[in-house]
Amino acid sequence: MMKRITLVMMVFILLVLAGCRKVDYTLIDQPAYLRVFNDLNYAQSMDAKDSKYPSLCMIINPVLDAGGMPTGGEVVGDFLDKRDTYAPPYPSHVGNSTSVQNPEYPGKEDVLVGPILNGFDLSSWAQVRSGKLRIMFFYRPFNTTPFFELDDRLKHDVLVDTTLTLTAKEVYTLHVLQKDFLTKQTGLLLRQENFHKLPLSDTMAYVNFYNYSAKGFWQADYSLKNQDVSLRSFKYGVKDTMNIFLTLYKGQTTPDKSPFIKNFRGNYLGTMIRNADAGSVNPYYDFPLWADTSADGIRTDIWERLEFLVQGLDISDHPYISGGLSNTYANYAAAYCLLNGKVQIGGSSPLGSGVPLPNLLVSLHSGIDNPRTFATVSTIEIVNSHIYLTTIQRKYPGPVYR
Amino acid sequence: MKTRKYTGLLLPVVISSALFTSCKHEDLAVSKPNENVRTAGDFIKNNYDFSLFYAALDYTGLIRQLNEKGPFTVLAPANKAFMELGIQTAADVQRLNRDSLKQAMAFHILTRRLMQADVPVNGVDIEYETLAGIPLYATFACYAPGNSAYSYDKLYFSGSFAYRKDVQLANGVLHALVKVMKQYPGKTVRQWLADRPDYSIFVSGLKKFGLWDELAGDGPFTIFAPDNKAFTDAGISQAVVDDLETDKYIGQRLFGAYILYKKRYFLADKILFNIVNGEASYLTTIRNDQAVFGWYDYQGDYNLSLTSGRIQPIIYYGSVDVPGALGYRLDHLCSNGIVHDTPGLLIKPEQALK
Fold it and tell me: Do B190 and B275 reside in the same domain of the chain?
């Protein structure tokens, strides 16, 4: 009996000892939330032959040696590649790719991310120390060698070296931009977001627009612009002041035959003015999640088309309405938000001039409903000949399988 | 019965032991690796298509180095490439300046093993250090992005097409080139033109209109230089250029149209961007003028043109065909740019009146 008690005691002590594991949790006191995009466009073309590919390394509070060579830093965002057309509401890139190239920061980086703030999922925002930060962006070669292991001569090419002041618990989006198309001057733009402070309804979809194009882009000679045909009507850029119009369609399976939603055909949303210098938040425009009155209140199959027209052109009657004109002279551009943003609508149809983006409404398995449609808060940014969509999503209930 | 049982057991043992003992090979022949494999120097020596290249390597003493351990990448111009330059026999090679020939031939040797697969897909102007101490530029035109099923895989070294690739050698690899790579280290495009009396009319025009001095600057420049024959064929003699009144003509159009500023293009770059980016034509507005310089490629043959601009009505000034067969007169790599010989004119003086 004594023997058995001793044995039990020994096993117990063993378990207790084995359970004593010290875990050091990374903590950032009073963090700010930061998301970084590299908006420098690049096209491999005759004209850009001798220009640098915009692969970057971001270092916050860098440590420099006596010769000015970076040797480390508080936060290192390496392999920061040019951004993707779509910035998803949660960092899904890490599971969808094996490449080290990062389309945004934090993106694939394994760092502390933001919490659910006022219902919004901030897992695409990294936690960084608030206060005054020195931030440097370096050009780096497009390869898989980490920045600090590169040859010394490749670590001197500074794109920008500046200080930012971040306030605790605020949400920031930082853009690396080309400020002037002719001088190729680059710079940063820091935007302090406010979506988590606004009284936004969860039955309305919200979207706001920014034109962060470089000065002089739309005026520039056609031969200097990206010739990629997949840029469609955005190839020539858009003028500095554009009116925005929204059309809703029903049915995503045969989009070129989809009917309009009643009262949502060519609705004027607002005006977009080019400004690559101000970090202010532009107003959010909205449309109802249940614009299609025949939807069942769980799922809706509507999709959106956004058109940008120069002031003076009429949405119901303009020369680009057929989609047939090849050169828009920066007067017109269009995008459609359909399914996952990979669906190309054919060339000659009026929709053919649009750039495909993912739907502004998210449909997925949630609770017992598969799918169930949720409204999002979205941001559309136009940078030279590219259009980018960032989706912010509320936290939704996980799927229940029966 | 009992005896039969034992026999049954014994039989397989006997058979198997017989099998093992029969496996006896006194003179087992193991294939040995060939120790007499070819080194780069021997390979070139024994290949008739590279006899002039061999003569040049032999004359300059580089051939001994190519038989050493390596690794090397040899970019071997075929005999045709030397003949285009007027070098017909090994005796012609001997008449050349040994030091400058050694520099030129060392430019065709890399001190590493560079297979085609090592060059980045769709890479443009990838620098590789040569034995001459200066880099050459590799360009690898593969396919349009996302369309790897239609692959061209055209490999160029400093504008020279590699028609036979990845020839394995004991101490490296060899690629055969259609033309000799021409490089002029330390020499600016201005110096290059000044050294050649064939371009004297073009040079005098550049000087007259104040376009000459900056060609010694950083650049880079790409110059499509018309030779004197091109001018005289068009009825423009040295005297005509001398008589031009600078205040009556737009010099940037009349002589500057042949210069692309802040650009460095080998002719083959046009082929790459045609494949990679669908740019069959490259149109660019010339400096300080409305006129548009056009550059087209027809699978290795080129056409240059000059028009009045992009706004209708467009006036067509002129065009020149640059056949790929004249490749040996193209791609002169200088320290601040590249000069291409152009066998015709893009514009006449009367089209450049102010």
Answer: yes
